[in-house]
Amino acid sequence: MIELLSSRAHDGPNAEGAIMKDLTQVVHHPKVSHEGFASLTVPTYRASTIVFDDAEAYANRKYRGPDGYTYGLHGTPTTKTLEAQLTALEQGERTVIVPSGQAGITIVFLTVLRQGDTVLIPDNAYPPVRGFCANYLEPRGIHHRVYDPMIGAGIAELIDDTVKLVWTESPGSTTMEVGDLPAIVAAAKDKGVLTGCDNTWATPLLFKPLAIGMDFSMEALTKYVGGHSDILLGSISVADVAWHRKLKDTTRMIGIGVSPDDCALALRGLETMGVRLTHMGRVSTDFAQRLKTHPAVASVLHPALPDCPGHEFWKRDFKGASGVFSVVLKPGLDAGLDDALSAMKTIAIGASWGGTRSLIAPMSVEGDRTVNPWTEEGRILRISVGLEDPEDLWTDIAALFDALVPAGKGA
Ligand SMILES: *Cc1c(COP(=O)(O)O)cnc(C)c1O
């Protein structure tokens, strides 16, 4: 045998006083005292392998169940701290962390739906949900039907024997309609059908889907929980432990898990989410009200405005507003839009909202609406309010909208 690295000459005693050869020492971290170390932060525990005390513990590892530690893919104490904190905020029993918000949705669908089943999704769902249903589930014999997000108790008429899940999202992506979720839950329960909610806009601080009887509450942690535009994560919270087991079965069999480092960033984001949301909700509502009367604006889509479809449900069910809303331009103002957007100084152009930086994104929803065809001719701009000085933001926004109005008719 060729000795690539001889360490014998320098071998010394290890912490226990026994001699450990260097090549062994380098892979064994010495135990250090934790006495007196009291930190306010959650340690980031990284692991692929989990080791066992003895052969018997290894042999019996599967009996540890979905709450125990068996393999790094299924979670470390960092993951479980984030899960437990979200479970508490969602008033649920368990939470599963997944690699993205979209994965949060697809994992629920894949866990609940079998060949021949149908899922009902709202017309204003996050668009990749529609894509997943049409392009992934349909070829595998799982069907979907799209419903009017304002349907309320009328959802009962769409529930036949094949329907297993009613998916909701409120307010809906981009067009911001707020559905009557308690009415949908009541109708679904009456028919023995499961319900789930994409709660990303509100976060569990402004609305708690499980508290109104939903079976699944999903958050794109990527957005407000992460809060700094630097992680991708999703969560699924449930009130029934049996669903937790089934969701964990799905993630285990598919082989997906999340990075403990990302969970640590989500845990940090959670700590400031309350003050961020309060601020962003106040500023977004103020901007929405001011933009309503701007000559370039046809309408403003923001749940806190009385003319937003479902405003009364938002007032009844939600604790407040977050920072994302949309503005519909008057028709015919497209000519200068690209230049005006590119000239913005503080607000960045981008889609994945919820961070500290304000974003704006021109959206087109025509292709994503099949139940209620979108008939507004003007372009839609979606705005996500960040944490910059509101005066700087308003200067940027006013300049954008003023630039779109034909000369002489500015605000
Ligand atoms: C962004 C978003 C998602 C998806 O989250 P990702 O982590 O980007 O996959 C799902 N639903 C809503 C409402 C979103 O805004």
From TrEMBL:
Q: Which GO terms describe its biological process?
A: L-cysteine catabolic process to pyruvate; transsulfuration
Q: Which cofactor does it need?
A: pyridoxal 5'-phosphate
- Segments forming a coiled coil: none
Question: Pathway it belongs to?
Answer: Amino-acid biosynthesis; L-methionine biosynthesis via de novo pathway; L-homocysteine from L-cystathionine: step 1/1
- Entries under Pfam families matching the protein: Cys_Met_Meta_PP (PF01053)
Q: Provide the positions where the record notes the PTM N6-(pyridoxal phosphate)lysine.
A: 223
Q: Name one GO molecular function term.
A: pyridoxal phosphate binding
Q: Is this entry keyworded Lyase?
A: yes
**E.C. numbers:** 4.4.1.8
Q: Which domain of life is it from?
A: Bacteria
Keywords recorded for this protein, A-Z: Lyase, Pyridoxal phosphate
Q: What class of enzyme is it?
A: lyase
Query: Reaction(s) catalyzed by this protein?
Result: L,L-cystathionine + H2O = L-homocysteine + pyruvate + NH4(+); an S-substituted L-cysteine + H2O = a thiol + pyruvate + NH4(+)
- Please report which protein family the annotation says this sequence is part of: Belongs to the trans-sulfuration enzymes family.
PANTHER family, A to Z:
CYSTATHIONINE BETA-LYASE-RELATED
Protein name per UniProt: Cystathionine beta-lyase
